[in-house]
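R.M. (postdoc): so does anyone remember the format we settled on? I'll just put the structure tokens first.
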């Protein structure tokens, strides 16, 4: 990097493709072993005008860089780390990091008196350079960083020359300094060093000529006179008062020739350096007392610690080690405590600072509230002024500019051990000018921003307390007796405030002030969400005020998104919700959420297929909802909610389409959809059943939420679409709950079509539970409405399920008549999957009636349909019937192979109900083959599989199958049949009940 960007491989340099890959690699190398966010990389490449595909292009470049770096020398890995990437490698593998390390070591050696070794290290550091830093790289922001490194190179050269001047090597340095002043004619420090080297080499006239040359350069290029330091050098040479420096670098002033003019010092000496023999009071005007610098001032600015502090001991120890500089880095120890509002960042910082103050930092502690979350944050100039006064600098002597104040501040702290606490920082820009230059000091920063750009910081991100520490904090404030006396209420209380330290401290303070209040009464007061923030206030402590500081600091658009997000009730939020709420169609909607993550009003809950997931802390959600009610009119809230609900509906519909190969065997309403980015949808629904499983809670919650908001058409549509999941996974309770909610909504709205659709779907549910009478009633009422509305799809679904009930009851004639009408209805609706299902189900009757050729033709047609549209579940069910037909035909071996294939399909798709059917089928097949041991094994597994998913009807059938095999084991048969008889009786399964009672009587 110290020159053109190069990567060294085992066989020589590796070519880094110019352009974006070069920029990304350079950025990662500059921040090696630290996270560089994707947003930063986008800004570095495109600055103010990134394309919509910017993040995707960054991902592609990173992927290619990983392959390139696999061939690099040394150990180097490029890994993804939210919110971006981090390049892990040793400092010795990156020339820029090695350069910085060598310079830091050289400075330390010089301070310890080892000047020779320091010169050697500085020479080694400069030889790493092969030209200007990052030559040829096209990135404005990186060019600024390159200029900074170029400046550090010159500073290292100047430091090495200064040390060599102190060692008396004046004549050896003249030629090098003449070259450097020619290359950098406006750099006054180099001119000053050349003048001193010439003079101390006995070349006084050339030294004066060097001064005149410097003056001419400055006048011609900048229109300025030389600095005071250069003018003092000229005056000292003319007066003959510039002897060589001592080892410390301070020029000695001969006592034989005192003068009112101060003797010149090396131009890079510290501002407060004084001659070894200062002028007497007769030679120099007295300094007013108000301007006297107090050298013995020891500031103690920390706020008071708190007695009821609770924290993780390991975290405290790690912070202590980081601030003590025990990592051996040789840089200023720096720790940053970040976290959402109310997590106790300031409390932790003050506690740690007090713990370290006396032993670790005897020269004082500086503290400043930087007001980063207010509308008027403290400026670095303002803070430095306060700190300099605290360090004994009179106000009259404090310079005006930021740079001069920072120099004086670093100089003042150079030989001291002082802890600096910077509370509530807005960002890195506010902190960087306040960092000391000496590693004897340490800095502790708190912020709601993550401060990822603070170099070398030990980071601690606070979250809510765990339950044990939350209860401990409550006990310390209100007393252990009250907590143990109402243990259940105490646990409920800490859960209600989300274990947020500030919120818990507020309610504890209220309870401490009111000893007659019970903890249960406080829980009751907090239960009403609308008034919860009113209850979270005591004296000057208010949760609302703490949150409002961060909220008001957000951009208007970010505030609006935070408010709208509070409408979402799911525990975690997918990124596309932000786009839906704002009706923003960008391909990467997570970009909308990242500003809220940066200030920790929203947390990243993890990654998912298709993007990141986010979550609110409950107190922040309550605050956002409060602001939502104030800032957004009802029609605006309703439109945003409809888009969010429409997004869930679109994804559920697409999941159904992917499972069934299209919009088959389902009715849809007219509620509008909102389409998330196509790339997200494709990736998230690559496995549609897995997505439905993962989002089950959010989807079921949206059925209820939509019903509450009056979106009855969407509520019933989403509920019936979710049967895709409920049926396969056996989620009968969710099926029933969501449908009763939707049914209430459509009935209230007078939505006849929706009412019929929900009742028809409930009929399928009751049928799955073997509640045939209830199913028949639901299906008949739905069919009446569908016939009145001339809704062929609805009629088809109802008649298909009614046929199945008739078939199960042994009325094959009625079943075939209903199947025939259902087939015609599906054909009218253009639903080929519905046709295939009817063909498969009716084929079972044809098999029982001995019409095997007809059954085979129907099954072949159904398989062709499923194969054509790619519906695996339908193919599995039809293949099961094929296996049964093979068994009827006496082709048992082929039947077993077919059943085994279908069993694997069911297991692959997670179809627990189908798995129970196939285990039972295999038991029948092995029974027919005369292999009772294998049959018994499969029937046993069928009982377990069915009853594990609470399908006691299916379990009873498998128990009956198994009991038929165990006629010689009456005890085991009785154990199997007793619960089966109860199930058959409850569900009015007459044929099965008769046989089970007969077998039970024979035991």
């Amino acid at each position: 990097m110290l020159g053109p960007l190069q990567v060294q491989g085992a066989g020589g340099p590796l070519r880094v493709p110019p352009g974006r890959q070069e920029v990304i690699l350079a950025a990662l190398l500059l921040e090696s072993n630290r996270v560089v966010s994707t947003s930063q990389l986008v800004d570095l490449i495109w600055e103010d005008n990134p394309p919509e595909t910017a993040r995707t292009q960054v991902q592609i470049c990173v992927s290619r860089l990983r392959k390139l770096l696999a061939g690099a020398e040394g150990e180097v890995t490029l890994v993804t780390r939210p919110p971006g990437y981090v390049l892990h490698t040793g400092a010795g593998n990156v020339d820029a990091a090695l350069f910085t390390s060598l310079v830091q070591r050289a400075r330390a050696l010089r301070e310890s008196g080892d000047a020779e070794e320091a010169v050697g290290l500085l020479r080694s550091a400069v030889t790493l350079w092969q030209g200007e830093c990052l030559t040829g790289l096209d990135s404005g922001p990186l060019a600024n960083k390159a200029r900074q490194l170029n400046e550090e190179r010159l500073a290292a050269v100047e430091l090495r020359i200064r040390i060599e001047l102190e060692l008396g090597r004046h004549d050896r340095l003249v030629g090098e300094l003449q070259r450097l002043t020619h290359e950098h004619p406006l750099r006054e420090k180099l001119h000053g060093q050349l003048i001193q080297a010439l003079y101390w080499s006995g070349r006084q006239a050339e030294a004066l000529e060097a001064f005149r040359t410097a003056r001419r350069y400055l006048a011609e290029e900048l229109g300025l006179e030389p600095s005071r330091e250069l003018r003092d050098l000229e005056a000292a040479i003319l007066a003959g008062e510039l002897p060589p420096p001592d080892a410390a670098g301070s020029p000695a002033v001969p006592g034989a020739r005192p003068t009112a003019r101060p003797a010149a010092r090396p131009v890079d000496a510290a501002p407060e350096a004084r001659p070894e023999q200062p002028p007497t009071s007769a030679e120099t005007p007295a300094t007013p007392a108000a301007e006297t610098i107090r050298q013995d001032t020891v500031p103690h600015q920390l706020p008071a610690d708190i007695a009821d502090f609770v924290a993780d001991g390991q975290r405290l120890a790690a912070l202590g080690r980081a601030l003590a500089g025990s990592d051996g880095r040789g840089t200023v120890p720096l720790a940053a405590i970040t976290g959402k509002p109310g997590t106790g960042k300031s409390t932790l910082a003050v506690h740690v600072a007090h713990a370290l103050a006396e032993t670790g930092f005897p020269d004082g502690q500086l503290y400043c509230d930087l007001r980063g979350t207010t509308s008027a944050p403290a400026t670095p100039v303002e803070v430095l002024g306060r700190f300099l006064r605290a360090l004994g600098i009179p106000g009259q002597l404090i310079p005006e500019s930021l740079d001069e104040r920072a120099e004086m501040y670093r100089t003042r702290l150079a030989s001291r051990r002082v802890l600096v606490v910077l509370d509530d920082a807005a960002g890195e820009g506010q902190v960087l000018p306040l960092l000391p230059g000496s590693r004897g000091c340490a800095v502790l920063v708190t912020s709601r921003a993550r401060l990822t750009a603070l170099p070398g910081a030990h980071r601690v991100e606070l979250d809510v307390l765990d339950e044990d520490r939350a209860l401990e904090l409550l006990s310390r404030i209100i007393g252990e007796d009250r907590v143990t006396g109402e243990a259940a209420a105490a646990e409920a209380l800490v859960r209600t405030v989300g274990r947020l330290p500030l919120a818990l401290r507020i309610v504890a303070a209220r309870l401490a002030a009111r000893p007659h209040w019970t903890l249960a009464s406080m829980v009751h007061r907090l239960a009403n969400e609308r008034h919860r923030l009113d209850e979270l206030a005591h004296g000057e402590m208010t949760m609302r005020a703490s949150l409002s500081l961060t909220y008001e600091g957000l951009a208007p658009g970010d505030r609006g998104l935070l408010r709208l997000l509070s409408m979402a009730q799911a525990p975690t939020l997918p990124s596309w919700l932000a786009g839906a709420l704002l009706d923003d169609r960008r391909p990467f909607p997570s970009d909308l959420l990242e500003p809220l993550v940066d200030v920790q009003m929203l947390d990243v809950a993890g990654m998912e297929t298709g993007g990141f997931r986010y979550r609110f802390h409950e107190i922040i959600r309550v605050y956002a909802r409060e602001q939502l009610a104030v800032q957004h009119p009802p029609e605006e809230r309703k439109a945003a909610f409809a888009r969010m609900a429409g997004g869930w509906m679109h994804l559920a519909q697409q999941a159904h389409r992917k499972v069934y190969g299209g919009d088959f065997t389902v009715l849809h309403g007219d509620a509008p959809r909102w389409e998330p980015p196509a790339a997200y949808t494709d990736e998230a629904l690559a496995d549609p059943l897995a997505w439905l499983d993962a989002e089950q809670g959010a989807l079921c919650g949206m059925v209820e939420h939509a019903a509450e908001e009056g979106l009855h058409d969407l509520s019933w549509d989403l509920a019936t679409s979710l049967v895709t999941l409920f049926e396969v996974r056996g989620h009968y309770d969710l099926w029933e709950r969501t449908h009763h909610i939707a049914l209430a909504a459509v009935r209230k709205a007078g939505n006849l079509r929706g009412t019929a659709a929900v009742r028809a779907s409930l009929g399928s549910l009751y049928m799955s539970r073997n509640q045939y009478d209830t199913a028949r009633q639901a299906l008949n009422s739905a069919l009446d409405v569908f016939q009145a509305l001339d809704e062929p799809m609805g009629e088809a679904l109802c008649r298909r399920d009614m046929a199945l009930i008739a078939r199960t009851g042994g009325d094959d004639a009625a079943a075939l008549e209903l199947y025939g009408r259902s087939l015609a209805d599906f054909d009218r609706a253009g639903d080929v999957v519905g046709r295939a299902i009817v063909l498969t189900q009716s084929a079972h009757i044809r098999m029982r009636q001995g019409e095997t050729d007809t059954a085979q033709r129907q099954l072949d047609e159904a398989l062709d349909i499923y194969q054509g549209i790619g519906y695996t579940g339908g193919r599995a069910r039809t293949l099961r019937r094929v296996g049964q037909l093979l068994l009827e035909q006496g082709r048992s071996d082929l039947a077993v192979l077919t059943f085994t294939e279908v069993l694997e399909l069911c297991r692959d798709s997670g179809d627990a109900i189908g798995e129970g059917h196939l285990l039972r089928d295999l038991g029948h097949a092995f029974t027919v083959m005369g292999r009772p041991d294998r049959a018994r094994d499969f029937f046993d597994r069928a009982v377990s599989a069915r009853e594990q998913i609470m399908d006691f009807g299916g379990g009873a059938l498998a128990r009956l199958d198994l009991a038929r095999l165990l006629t010689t084991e009456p005890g085991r048969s009785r154990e199997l049949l007793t619960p089966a008889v109860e199930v058959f009786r409850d569900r009015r399964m007459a044929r099965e009940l008769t046989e089970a009672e007969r077998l039970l009587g024979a035991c």
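R.M.: ...and that's the designed sequence above, right after the tokens. Also worth knowing: The chain is about 60% helix and 5% strand. The CA atoms of residues 903 and 918 lie 6 Å apart.
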